[in-house]
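Structure ticket #2291
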Amino acid sequence: MHSALARINNVSSLFSTCLMVLLAAVALSSLFATADPKGRIDVVSLKVYNAKAKRYPFKEQEFGFVKFDIDADLTPLFNWNTKQLFVYLEAEYASSHGVNNTIVLWDRIVPRKEDAHVVVSSGRNKYKLKELYESFK
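Resolution: structure written out below.
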């Protein structure tokens, strides 16, 4: 007869082996699942205005306002391992001081495959586009 500790050891080793095989299958299936989403982004207008900053009322800053159109079909990105998608639009520019800046302008969460066709017409930036050093130039 085997002792209780030997039986627990056998059951736990069988369970851990099955779990490792399942995790390897998940990793391999995610590795071979390729997706090719299609989309188009058009910048309709980009306007820059001088205005007083709320934090520093005596300091003028440049604020940027972007209008854009997005038409993207993200349905190929959904598979059995995808619960939701985080989609965002970012702007990248170099300031006059030589610093590269990246700003998220707009974002959206796509919770289901049925909502994966993202169409935004005349969208505006959701977050402020401002330069800390007073000018984008």
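Closing remark: The chain has a mean pLDDT of 86.
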